[in-house]
């Protein structure tokens, strides 16, 4: 997956040749060293979401149980890919009653649909430290395309000898497109839960052994 990054070395953006289309953004050659398979380090990562509540505040939550398969190609980012399988019952908003409502039939209905899945379909380097990953997101057996903006944060060998890299990813979806339509109307207008949901991926990934 996009193990892409804010490195200290500069990224040179080549000027387009006269009479031709603009060239692809140049990649930092150091990214080639990151080519390989990675997995998300859950204790140091967060798969989160935020949604407007009662039109006046924002509720945040996260999913704590998931599996990941990530591959990054430092020479050809378009060959990078990712898969994320989330156990929806692990949702945590910090309020037990609210979490119970979310896993019930009004929302995720985890007895029938225990997993949420993202599988990438393409990756594009947009320039500098920013990439765009398009993929299919499946919720409640409904699959629709989404686009993630990914910003590379850096790479390091930690004190325990693990090579790790980090990136932030964000996207906003309309939950009703995945069948999450439950809501309540407010007397003053508007709804209790916004249809727009912001998904946030704060990722620390560890290289897998060959």
UniProtKB/TrEMBL annotation:
> SUPFAM superfamilies this protein is in?
YceI-like
Q: Spell out where the chain crosses the membrane.
A: none
Lipid/polyisoprenoid-binding YceI-like domain location is 37-206
- Domain of life according to the entry: Bacteria
The entry sums up its family as follows: Belongs to the UPF0312 family.
User: Which named protein is this?
Assistant: Polyisoprenoid-binding protein YceI
Native species of this protein? Streptomyces thermodiastaticus
């Amino acid at each position: 997956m996009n193990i892409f990054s804010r490195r200290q070395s500069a990224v040179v953006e080549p000027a387009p040749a006269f009479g031709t289309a603009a060239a692809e953004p140049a990649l930092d050659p150091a990214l080639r060293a990151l080519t390989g398979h990675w997995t998300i380090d859950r204790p140091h990562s967060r798969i989160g979401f935020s949604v407007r509540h009662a039109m006046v505040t924002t509720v945040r939550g996260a999913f704590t149980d998931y599996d990941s398969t990530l591959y990054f190609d430092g020479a050809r980012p378009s060959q990078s890919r990712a898969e994320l399988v989330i156990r929806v019952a692990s949702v945590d908003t910090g309020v037990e009653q609210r979490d119970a409502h979310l896993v019930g039939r009004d929302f995720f209905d985890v007895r029938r649909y225990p997993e949420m899945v993202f599988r990438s379909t393409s990756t594009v380097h947009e320039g500098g430290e920013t990439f765009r990953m398009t993929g299919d997101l499946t919720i409640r057996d409904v699959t629709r395309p989404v686009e993630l903006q990914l910003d590379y944060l850096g790479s390091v060998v930690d004190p325990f000898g693990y090579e790790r890299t980090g990136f932030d990813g964000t996207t906003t979806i309309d939950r009703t497109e995945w069948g999450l339509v439950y809501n309540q109307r407010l007397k003053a207008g508007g709804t209790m839960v916004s249809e727009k949901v912001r998904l946030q991926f704060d990722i620390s990934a560890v290289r897998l052994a060959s």
